[in-house]
Amino acid sequence: MPTQLRETAVNSPRRGCAPEELSNIFPTVVMRRKMPDAEARNARLRDVVLAREKSDPGIQHSNVGGWHSSADLWEWQEPEIRQLCAWVIAAAEDLTATMVQLRSGDEVRAIPYGGAWVNLLREGGYNKVHNH
Predict the structure, then answer these.
(1) Does residue 90 contact residue 111 with C-beta atoms inside 8 Å?
(2) Per residue in 52-90, pLDDT tens?
């Protein structure tokens, strides 16, 4: 930066930005929600996942030293998985209803698409750097 411009910027009496100078175009909202009875549900989910690992070789993706299920979690029929999927969909609908300006009578309906999977890592296991 040329010296004159640097001195002008540094010596400017006003520091900061006016609200009209800013646009929030890439916000990152993080929702944290605890599933009711999570401890007991997690124990049952653990059993389901470990049983699936024994019967399904899974896929090799970015996992090192672990098991990666096929990307078909939305289709698993175990009651524990069905409950988890329903809870995730309800949470997505709640978040959407909070973030989007709804008009009277608008309906929020989350429809999962794409894959969902289990990534099971034991001590020493990890995922290689990868893109989504």
Answers:
(1) no
(2) 999 999 999 898 989 999 999 999 999 999 999 999 999
> What secondary structure letter does DSSP report for 59?
B
Burial string for 22-50 (b: 16+ CB within 10 Å, else e) reads eeeeeeeeeeeeeeeeeeeeeebbeebbe
Task: Give dist(CA 105, CA 32) in Å, integer.
Answer: 27
Whole-number Å distance between alpha carbons of 87 and 61: 27
Distance CA 53, CA 67 (A): 7
* Segment 113-132, tens digit of pLDDT: 889 999 999 999 999 998 87
| In the block, residue with structure tokens 């524990």 | 80
Please check whether residue 116 is in contact with residue 74, taking contact to mean a CB–CB distance below 8 angstroms.
yes
- Reading phi first (left if > 0) and then psi (alpha if -120 to 50, else beta), residue 90 is in alpha
- Residue with tokens 């993080």, as numbered in its chain: 30
| Rounded distance between C-alpha atoms, residue 45 and residue 78, angstroms | 9
